[in-house]
Design brief:
The structure holds two protein chains of two kinds. By secondary structure, chain A is of the alpha/beta class. Helices cover about 35% and strands about 10% of the residues of chain A. Chain A has two domains: about 290 residues, Aldolase class I (TIM Barrel, Alpha-Beta Barrel), CATH 3.20.20.70; about 100 residues, no CATH class. Chain A starts with 10 loop residues before the first helix and ends in a 26-residue tail after the last helix. Chain B is built from eight helices and eight strands. Classes of the chains: A alpha/beta, B alpha/beta.
């Protein structure tokens, strides 16, 4: 194989360069696939996925997330590996990737491989290299763990299909919520080229499901589905635009996950915003919260945001924000309300709602029982009754509840944010500046 | 009536034998209690009975629990019995009574209104969570085989609060079916052993077992360093958040993980 880099580079140097290049890809889940070991090779997959370590930024390390190469013919403004950047370049060989994966996996460092790549020569050439690598890993090394492959936009559909039979999950990054945004920021990428493989993978998964119904031993195609990611805060897109795109991706492309990546200005490009307060982590957090509401709590985007009110309230979480604007639906009687109504109460999650439904078969629940079940009473108490009584007298008034929730947050006793805690990020934006 | 305390050994066998004997007393359950380990403060007007673990009684109890309550509840009870808290005996016993005698049956773990069931649920969840963390955070080191037959042994040391080795082994026995590996709980001096392609089993030892770096295979050092480099590189500087890292992966796990170099 002809490569443009010096061949004497050690695996250590390559790993450092190619992990550096891959780290802005958010997806790290190893969930969705459930496969037992067959006794002939190494590995299995667990439906819920496993995290094996946590990096200094608190993000989980589940997969060996690397680029095959960081040489790239594209010049996307946000990307550290763009053609016009003078950064050290490296490429793995398929054998190096296989060996690293196998040895890390045996030691329980990782759950599998996440293989992405810069575009070397052409999309087809790159996709072929990726397929060759994973094919080796699956056949020669008999690796049965999790593999996530990045589909290269613009690659031949046949190659994408081949990759789908080797991978548990595939992803194509949407990068920007709008087509205009993508054009402005990634001149070599086109929305059409991104959506085409996404649709192909979706159809592949559907067909494969039908095949497996007929032929039990038919090979699996992307068993864990596909995901994508969008960069947040590089362009002036509203939360409403971003969430609407996410919703349509879930509905029309049957995606498993949409990831949101707070923009980090690695290139200090003049066309991109300089973010003095660091990456927009709080906004990213609010988007993830809303994403969960879409996927597990039966919410629709129009309920959370509208064109007139296009951004999330930074001071309280999206669910509480929805609840205080719909006080006509509260308070909810815990011992009577159905599961879907319970899910909409702030301070209650999927687990506590399920436990409530199960536990109340044995008799009426009290506030003490709710505490044991895991309900966050300090948030829920404004919205619920137990046996017709509220926990203590409180006003069902929007301003009053918001004031109390925000006050709790300010005292550090309310919502647990994953980053405000040690003041490393986002401390610059106080609640007063947010207009509360 | 006088309270009766059954003192049983701190093991699944001890607790199950205790439950068997509590039922065998035929005195109802109101005044009978199960206590794990030694009696601490002796109570006045209470009788203490020492229970000798009995494999036949244990088997009978296990079989009854499995058939009457289902595998799911049975496993929850086992996890609660593996807890590090000493009130587990009473919690497991009372939960069994709630299920078999008070009639909540297979749904017993949902009856959180009963404080003993709630406690049992809590203990089982704690053990299950810790077992899950160990499954994620265990780090195997490759040791060179000493018998000259070639091949290698993977070895992992852990120091969990609860007795999780029995719950961790099935996961790795499937995943690493073609490997020889051992998981060693240094707090209980307990080994889970898996010879390649065979069933796993538990062994207890009296002496401390500490393989030195000298026992590592030729490549071990290199892969540890590679993983440390990966772990360092993958973090995004502008998002650094040590508190979140600690929250997701507590120090007591980090102490056993190769990628966390700085020992506290």
């Amino acid at each position: 194989m002809e490569l443009r880099i010096a061949p004497q580079m050690s695996v250590m140097e390559k790993l450092e360069i190619l992990a550096e290049g891959a780290k802005y890809d958010v997806s790290c889940s190893s969930s969705g696939s459930s496969r037992a070991n067959d006794g002939k090779g190494l590995g299995n997959t667990v439906a819920a996925g496993l995290c094996h370590s946590f990096a200094a930024d608190g993000r989980c390390i589940s997969l060996l997330k690397i680029l095959f190469t960081n040489e790239c013919i594209y010049d996307c403004k946000y990307c550290v590996n763009r053609r016009s950047n003078d950064v050290p370049r490296a490429s793995f060989t398929p054998d190096e990737v296989c060996e690293l994966t196998m040895e890390f996996y045996r030691r329980n460092y990782i759950e599998g491989l996440f293989l992405s790549s810069g575009i070397l020569y052409s999309p087809n050439y790159t996709m072929e290299l990726i397929c060759e690598t994973v094919h080796k890993l699956r056949t020669i090394h008999r690796f049965q763990g999790y593999v996530h492959i990045k589909a290269i936009p613009g690659a031949d559909p046949l190659l994408i299909q081949k990759a789908g039979y080797l991978a548990d999950r595939m992803s194509v990054n949407l990068e920007m919520a709008t087509a205009e945004g993508l054009r402005a920021i990634a001149p070599n990428k086109h929305r059409k080229n991104i959506l085409a493989p996404m649709r192909q993978i979706q159809n592949g998964i559907t067909e494969n499901k039908n095949e497996i119904t007929l032929y039990r031993h038919a090979p699996h195609f992307c068993e864990a589905g596909q995901s994508t990611q969008m960069v947040i805060g590089a362009l002036p897109e509203s939360d409403f635009q971003i969430m609407s795109v996410a919703e349509s991706l879930y509905e029309k492309f049957s995606l498993k996950r949409v990831y949101y990546s707070a923009f980090v200005n690695v290139n200090e490009d003049k066309d991109l915003p300089a973010l003095s307060g660091g990456p927009p982590l709080l906004r990213e957090h609010r988007l993830y919260q809303a994403d969960w509401l879409l996927r597990f709590y039966d919410f629709k985007v129009e309920e959370l945001l509208t064109a007139e009110r296009p951004n999330f309230n930074m001071a309280i979480d999206p669910k509480a924000d929805w609840a205080v604007r719909h006080l006509e639906q509260f308070p909810v009687e815990i011992n009577r309300a159905d599961y879907h109504t319970l899910l909409r109460i702030p301070g209650l999650g999927v687990k506590s709602a399920r436990r409530i439904v199960a536990a109340r078969r044995f008799g009426n629940l009290t506030f003490a029982d709710l505490k044991k079940i895991g309900v966050v009473l300090k948030r829920a108490l404004y919205f619920i009754t137990c046996n017709g009584k509220m926990m203590y007298p409180t006003k069902l008034d929007e301003e009053y509840i918001v004031r109390n929730l925000v006050y709790q947050n300010q005292m550090g006793k309310g919502e647990k944010l994953p980053f405000l805690a040690d003041g490393t990020s986002y401390r610059q934006l106080s609640l007063f500046e947010m207009g509360v | 009536m006088e309270e009766k305390y059954l003192i049983c050994e701190d093991s699944l066998e001890g607790i199950f034998t205790g439950i068997y004997d509590a039922y065998a007393l035929r005195e109802g359950h109101e005044h009978v209690h199960l206590q794990v380990g030694e009696e601490e403060n002796l109570r006045l007007f209470a009788a203490y009975v020492h229970i000798v673990p009995d494999p036949v009684k244990t088997d009978k109890v296990a079989r009854t629990l499995k058939t009457r309550l289902g595998e799911h509840v049975y496993h929850s009870l086992c996890r609660a019995a593996a807890s590090c808290y000493s009130d587990k005996g009473e919690a497991v016993y009372r939960t069994v009574v709630d299920a078999l005698t008070a009639g909540s049956g297979r749904r017993v773990m949902e009856n959180v209104r009963n404080p003993h069931v709630a406690r049992c649920f809590e203990l089982a969840r704690y053990t299950a969570n810790e077992a899950h963390y160990e499954i994620e955070f265990i780090r195997f080191q490759e040791l060179a085989a000493t018998n000259g037959a070639g091949g290698s042994v993977l070895f992992a040391k852990i120091g969990p609060k609860n007795n999780v080795v029995p719950f961790v082994m099935p996961h790795f026995a499937d995943r690493l079916s073609i490997e020889n590996f051992m998981v060693y709980d240094e707090k209980r001096k307990l080994f889970g052993v898996h010879p390649a392609g065979e069933e796993w089993y538990l062994v207890t030892t009296e002496t401390d077992f500490l393989p030195e770096e000298a026992a590592w295979s030729a490549k071990e050092q290199e892969y540890q360093e590679l993983f440390r480099a990966f772990h360092r590189t993958i973090a995004i500087k502008s998002r650094e958040n040590r508190k979140l890292q600690r929250q997701m992966c507590a120090y007591r796990y980090q102490d056993y993980m190769v990628e966390f170099e700085q020992k506290r």
